[in-house]
Amino acid sequence: MAIIASNFKTNHTRKSTAAFIEEVNTFLKEKNITNEVLVFPTATSLDSFNTVSNLTVGAQNAYATQKGSFTGEIGTEQLDEFNIKTILIGHSERRHILGESQEEIAKKFNFYKELGYTIVYCIGEPLEVKEQGIEQTLEYIYEQFVGIDTNYENLILAYEPVWAIGTGVTATNDDIKAVHSAIKEKISKPLLYGGSVKVANVHEICSLDGVDGALIGTASWLVEDFKQIIENTKDL
């Protein structure tokens, strides 16, 4: 069963998010699609959505706290209001643009693990590491597991090569298979691929050995495209 996830990043409003989720929900019901679908809206668009059991709304980010004095952050008090129990942790934009260290990421991971959240944990390498070859790539990726319990029961991994996110450059099938098979040998958890996944290539990517679904940015923000992506992977 494929897992298809949409990361809205800093896109959509409260109103357009509600319309998007309602439309995807109706689509899943009408088409009788059983694949797991995750949507990660902005924090301002979180709400109590009435969805089928295989459509889950999660948080893109939260602080490792229930509540407190952390300006600009949200904690479990805000997530609990909408019964949210799924979170994205370790996304490369949090690591590279917002400067989250592995130590901070591990702290956040362990906080939400203790609360039983489903954690979509992101890993991936920048271009200069990729160019050094597969061994260096894997070494870099494995450093992103420091402090992370890879046996955690509610863990989903997402491999997102940083050089392929939002660039239009997708990793080759061989690149994807090489990294996914190496990770799968060590960690037996669902492993999604992310990085310029779109309507045209999602079926091929999700059909590769070791790929259990996709974490999608840009190509998932238009609801028609996202529905087509779900349609294209429904038999996997």
TrEMBL record:
Subcellular location: Cytoplasm
GO molecular function, one term: triose-phosphate isomerase activity
Residues at which substrate binds: N7, F8, K9, G166, S196
Gene3D superfamilies given in the database record: Aldolase class I
EC code(s) of this entry: 5.3.1.1
Cited InterPro entries: Aldolase_TIM (IPR013785), TIM_sf (IPR035990), TrioseP_Isoase_bac/euk (IPR022896), Triosephosphate_isomerase (IPR000652), Triosephosphate_isomerase_AS (IPR020861)
CDD domains per record: TIM
Source species, domain of life: Bacteria
Enzyme class at the top of the EC tree: isomerase
Keyword Isomerase included in the entry's annotation: yes
Annotated keywords: Cytoplasm, Gluconeogenesis, Glycolysis, Isomerase
Keyword Isomerase: yes
Pfam families recorded: TIM (PF00121)
Pathway info: Carbohydrate biosynthesis; gluconeogenesis; Carbohydrate degradation; glycolysis; D-glyceraldehyde 3-phosphate from glycerone phosphate: step 1/1
Subunit structure: Homodimer.
Protein's recorded name: Triosephosphate isomerase
UniProt organism field: Halarcobacter bivalviorum
Taxonomy of the source species: Bacteria, Pseudomonadati, Campylobacterota, Epsilonproteobacteria, Campylobacterales
